[in-house]
Amino acid sequence: MTEPTLPYGRQWIDDDDIAAVVAVLRGGYLTTGPAVSGFEEALGAHLGAPHTVAISNGTAALHAACAALALGPGDEVLVPAVTFLASANCAAYVGATPVFVDVLPDSGLIDVDDAARRVTSRTRAIIPVHLTGRPADMVAVRRLADQHGLRVIEDAAHALGATLGDTTIGDCRYSDVATFSFHPVKHITTGEGGAVTTRDPELARAMRAFRCHGMERDPDRLRDASPGPWYYEQQSLGFNYRITDIQCALGTSQLRRLDDFLQRRRALAALYDELLSDWQHVQPVAATTSDCLSAWHLYSVLIDFEAVGVDRATVMARLGEAGVRTQVHYIPVPWQPYYAARSEAPASYPGAGAYYTRTLSLPMFPAMSRDDPARVTAALAAATGR
Ligand SMILES: *Cc1c(COP(=O)(O)O)cnc(C)c1O
């Protein structure tokens, strides 16, 4: 019997999750109901965040953060070159200009010294991304932000459950806003979904309004006297970025299992680390700060394909034949045709180039068995001719 194919990541839904969703379907609210506020409270409590707004997806979370911080035309926003498209697109959505920053070649995390070099009189914000689940150097990011009066948005889509010193990513100790995604490959899922966290009640209010067309119903905040209970005012331009009760019931149920999921991810990462410890041309992605705990969204390795003598496409194809799916996170965003015309040439991002040419994400998800890492590394050994 052949062994089942291992994806690089996938969700884990159990009977409690299904029951939670079914209970909402039998109830009175499918959207904008108690399951949404319940999920926001549970997530905020878990992260130690004073304000949490659940939203339709992680990209909408980033868009809401940029809008609430009033970023707009003429503003420059520093974004690491290696990330998912959404980390840069959110700035473009509000008319601001993403300015790409190089990453550290062995971690893929934002190079804060390079960020400092790219600050101009127009720079208004920086979006560190906790790539693979390891926190970026937020102390250095905060220092840079304080020097230049920048706002800080953490793209924490990979980092639910990560810690840095005595802070939890999402408690916004070093940032104005942190954003999360609940796409099925992320730590917990709502199908599609996202959230923003902040310590600032005004930002939270703005992001809540942004989620629902810019509508304001709070009597204390209306411009005009309310003529009756139906009344609302649109005071800003928002979107329909609401998340449903169906999704949030799933999110609350999944959140109860987050600690178990994280423990499993950490145990799998430790097994991979051990199995790869004496490989010459394959190294796990490096940590940059010693006092952090990764949330292990991804287990990415750096492979010197030239030294190995097999190119990445061939290695991936051979792994695929062995039932091991892998992925590349990510093509540097300034390499993308849309951004190539709007940013500096690849040579300006040597760290991103060095990271991108070597990186490969091996299967990592909580339902993987403890035997799977050995199966993956055996397949990798065969695929690279080790
Ligand atoms: C997944 C992800 C997003 C976007 O989240 P969606 O929920 O898919 O919109 C943003 N940034 C990073 C780094 C991500 O991995």
Summarize the structure.
The chain is of the alpha/beta class.
What features would you describe in this structure?
37% of the residues lie in helices and 15% in strands. It is an alpha/beta fold. Helix 6 (138-148) links the parallel strand 4 and strand 5 (151-155). The radius of gyration is 21 Å and the shape is globular. The two termini are 26 Å apart. The mean pLDDT is 96. Pyridoxal-5'-phosphate is lined by residues 57-59, 83-84, 86-87, 129, 155, 157-158, 181, 183, 194.
Count of strand segments:
15
Main sheet properties: 7 strands, mixed
- H/E element string? HHEHEHEHEHEEEEEHEEHHEEEHHHHEH
Provide mean pLDDT, rounded: 96
- Major β-sheet strand ordering: 1-9-8-5-4-2-3
Question: Count the helices. How many?
Answer: 14
What labels describe this entry?
alpha/beta; 3-stranded antiparallel beta sheet; binds pyridoxal-5'-phosphate; 386 residues; 7-stranded mixed beta sheet
